[in-house]
Amino acid sequence: MAPLLEAQAELFTPLYERALAWLAKQQTDPGLVVDAGSGPGVVSCLLAEAFPGARVVAVDATEPLLERARARAERLGVADRFGTLAGDLPGVLGDLDYPADLLWAGRSLHHLGDQRAALAAFADRLAPGGTLAILEGGLPARFLPRDLGFGRPGLQARLDALQEEWFERMRADLPGSVAETEDWPALLAAAGLGHPHTRSFLLDLPAPATERARAYVAATLSRMRDGFGDRLDATDRATLDRLLDPDDEASVHHRPDVFVLAAHTVYTATKSL
After folding, report:
1. 175 exposed, middle or buried (CB, 10 Å; 0-12, 13-18, 19+)?
2. Residue 153 to residue 92: CA distance in whole angstroms
3. With 233 labelled, which of 81, 135, 215, 267 sits at a CA distance of 20 to 30 A?
4. Which long-range CB contacts under 8 A does 155-164 form with residues at least 24 apart?
5. Are residues 238 and 112 in contact, defined by beta-carbon separation less than 8 angstroms?
6. What pLDDT digit, counting tens, does each position of 6-55 carry?
7. Geometric angle at alpha carbon 223, from 217 and 226, rounded to 5°
8. Which residues in the chain belong to E strands, given as ranges?
9. Strand 139-142, strand 260-270: pairing
10. For residues 24 and 105, what is the distance between their CA atoms, to the nearest angstrom?
11. pTM for this prediction
12. 272 three-class SS
């Protein structure tokens, strides 16, 4: 998954850069920035660029991903103020040398069974005046027109519905899973944080898509086919297979109308001084 995670984060870099520029207006001069659930460190390194006076620590449970993060930091010239911490969230945050001034959790919180308890633990590791920023939710990405010219129109809407069912099963199967209303500002307030802010950021890569965008679209649709393709009817399975066939001119590898349009939402709150 590492190359796929890197490729997706790199494609979404314009969105992340706008989000971090917005964050930089709230937390102007952090000493320690933590990327909780960093994966291979693409966003961690963007945090290092957005906050040039800060030390950045990428935190993840998977050491090979952290190796890639360290290598990326070295390539980008930020290794002198870049560190990693391996372990399971949120407990591993107790191993930080000192509290964080900014803690970023980009789509990592929903992988933790008890999200309310995790937010409380995140808040506990903030310095007074520190900011917690979580990226969760937004809108499902769109890649294709509603009517593809073959198959039944509305394929992506049906894939979205199956994705939501998969997400619910994934959440239920997590250790210590607790059902929670996803009112993130209320959950941040319950963690003892104040001054909430919310903003959504758009990635708009219009057709015709670049090869990198096409690769992302193909990888995403392929994951969906592998994950829950058996829940599609025969017509939709055939449509999806055709979209993924690199030898078919109507596939996402070749068709001129492929695009990427997505919206991600960031929620922030701060710890009182």
Report:
1. exposed
2. 46
3. 215
4. 155/236, 155/239, 155/240, 158/232, 158/236, 159/221, 159/224, 162/224, 162/228, 162/231, 162/232, 163/224, 163/228
5. no
6. 999 999 999 999 999 999 999 999 999 999 999 999 999 999 999 999 99
7. 140
8. 32-36, 55-60, 82-86, 100-106, 126-135, 139-142, 194-205, 260-270
9. antiparallel
10. 15
11. 0.95
12. coil
Classify strands 100-106 and 126-135 as parallel, antiparallel or unpaired. parallel
How far is residue 119 from each of residues 91, 93, 94, 108, 126, measured CA to CA in Å? 11, 12, 14, 11, 11
Average pLDDT along the chain: 97
Determine the 3-state secondary structure of 82 from DSSP.
strand
Per-residue DSSP letter, 152: -
Instruction: Say if residue 208 is preceded by a cis peptide, omega within 30 of 0.
Output: yes
Evaluate the omega torsion of the peptide bond into residue 175 and state whether it is cis, within 30 degrees of 0.
Answer: no
C-alpha neighbours within 13 Å on the C-beta side of residue 124: 14
What is the residue type of 141? Answer: A
Q: CB-based contacts of 25: which residues, under 8 Å, 6+ apart?
A: none
Tell whether the torsion through CA atoms of 140, 145, 151 and 152 is positive or negative. positive
Q: Whose structure tokens read 């959790």?
A: 105
Reduced to 3 states (helix: H, G, I; strand: E, B; else coil), residue 208 is coil
Tokens 């109308």 correspond to: 257
CA pseudo-torsion sign 214, 217, 220, 226: negative
pLDDT means per 10 residues, the chain with 273 residues, are 87 98 95 97 98 98 97 98 98 97 97 98 98 96 97 97 95 97 97 98 98 96 93 96 98 98 98 94
**Beta partners for residue 84, in sequence order:** 58
d(CA 157, CA 81): 44
